Amino acid sequence: MKLSHRELAILDYLLEQEQYVNYKEIAHHHGITERMVRYDIEKIEVFLKKNQLEPLNRSLKKGIMIGKRDELYQLIQAFKQRTTPKTYKYSKDEIEEFILLSLLLAQETTPVSYFEEVLFISRTTVLNNMKVLEEQFRGSSLVLKHVKRKGYQIAGELLERCLSFSDLLLKSINLRELYTFIETDEVVFSKKAELIIFNLFDLEYLSESYYAVKKLEQYLGKEFEDAYTTLLLTLIYRIQEESEGWELRQFLTKNKGELSETETLLRLMINDSSSVRAAKTQLDVKQSVYELTEIIADYFDQDMASFSATFFTQLTAHVSNMIDRNRLGIKTTNPIYKEIVSDYPDLFKLLKGAVGRLAKTYDIEISDHEISFLVIYFASEIENRHVAQKKKPNVLVVCVEGLAVSKMLQSQLKKVFDFNRIETSSLKKFSAKDLDQYDFIISTVEIPDIRSPKIIKINNYLTGHDLERLKTYFDTRLLNSKDNGLSHFNRIMETIRENTNEITNLSKLELDLIKILTKKNRLSTKELIPDIHFSVANISIMPQRLRWEEAIAIGTDGLEKIKATQAAYKKRIMSNIRKHGPYMVIAPKVMIAHAGMEDGVNHAGLWITTLKEGTNLTGNFPEEVQLIITIALKDQTTHRVMENIAKLAFNEDKINSILSSNHAADIYSIVTSTIYK
């Protein structure tokens, strides 16, 4: 069990006293309520018992006093050395975040000395941070006020302050630490979480607020996302501070005129989920969702009737919450907004125009960030319909950013890898029991209280590094989709060669034709391939037999020559083969020579080496290697390249065409038609 900064201060105070002191004296000395003192003393008693020390001496009339001081004093000094900020220097960002969180939550002026004591920083450092906050709030509805001889306070709309606090809290600590601490009353994992939890909150109020939110979920019959949970927790915590003995049950039966400002805001938030009007709104929302879906399905030539019932249920719930947020003036931010708009510009523009009627119907303004969440739902559903499921691992995606982002990750993962079942969960809902139901847990945040080799940490938007790591756990999905015209490409090129002598740059013509043939109407930007340095000059046709080191060196040296890679890239490939064997031989006759993006890649490049007499790498494929595809990738979207190259490796007809050809231009045509597919 850990002691908070305040509990340590009370113990220090008691150690200094030679006689009994009562709760009132302790409360006055520390500037807190007697109720808080009683709570802290109970925590101290538990601490003493756990460390096998004598309990505090108590007297009904006199108060409390420490008995054996020496033993307790030594323990406290050792405890401080392990747990207090004196042995931990907080970073500039951690200091800024804590100061801002404190001011946003505080209902009264906070003195500069408070931050000096808690953070162990100078007065100058505190004042410099206040200047930073003043600049940060410039042009904002929130204002940092300096009250002479008292300290600082943030003024502004209550909702804006609560929203700012809950958003920053969500970014500052792992909510799993907060949930675990409240439920177990013992574990705090990081210094940052320890600083925030023990110094920002009255722990009794925090616990009561947390369980009040859980009761609200039961009352409304729904599970809140982590961001909404944090906002409700903030509101209820403020109410607990305002009204000692506050109870949710009594609050729910109060008349409107009896509510405080904070209670009124809380009532507004939960009324939109529980009133009869909300039920009628839900029917209207469902109709609006069907109308939106009809527009999207028509544009992308999809059968609306085949959209899943789960999609309609989840999107209807999301749109309903979106309307509620707008009515309350709550702004939301999509953490992967830029990526979504970049990957799906057509869908984003289409939805931006289509939501106009929805906005007019409910008299709300729908921001671009809100629209980007809608994009995620539609993009996920459309892409899911193009991926056939296979019986593979059962996977759970745990995401703190909300349902929309978790659904996007679910869709991305399903598209690249083979799963039997892939489902999503909020961080709050996830428990150790899920480890028994799923083969793997893919999480966007650390889960410090649950350790298991089944848990895989990734980013909230898949990066190339994430995909490389996931490939060590899961098989890549090799889609057998239609060629969209590329099956005729070689015949088109042959016809052009036979019927014209006027084309001066055949390679450019080939690439232009490929781009035209591969252009898709369905979410076209998602299929864009990053710029890769590859031309006819990047193809080597070797008639003689070579040792495997010589054969691989042709491609690696070639990439180094065009400055796509550094010498370290070649060394890494050679080292990996010597260490791990022929794992890069992924299909009969075909080897994909590659290393990581961090192993000396300057920019994306590709080199093709054909070996007429082959080379020998023993292992799973005892057959001679005759085609080496040397590739260097450096882009978040390069998993599309690897997927398409893997398709090429397993396409026996194309491989035979490449190996039988003596013309680099023909090989170039086959390879590019696959890469840009």
From TrEMBL:
PANTHER family, alphabetized: CRYPTIC BETA-GLUCOSIDE BGL OPERON ANTITERMINATOR (PTHR30185), TRANSCRIPTIONAL REGULATOR MANR (PTHR30185:SF12)
Keyword DNA-binding: no
Keywords for this protein: Repeat, Transferase
Domain PTS EIIA type-2 residues, every copy: 532-674
PROSITE patterns: PRD_2, PTS_EIIA_TYPE_2, PTS_EIIB_TYPE_2
BP GO annotations: phosphoenolpyruvate-dependent sugar phosphotransferase system; regulation of DNA-templated transcription
GO MF assignments: protein-N(PI)-phosphohistidine-sugar phosphotransferase activity
Chain ranges of the PRD domain: 280-388
The protein's name in its UniProt record: BglG family transcription antiterminator
Sequence ranges assigned to domain PTS EIIB type-2 in this UniProt record: 393-482
Keyword Thylakoid included in the entry's annotation: no
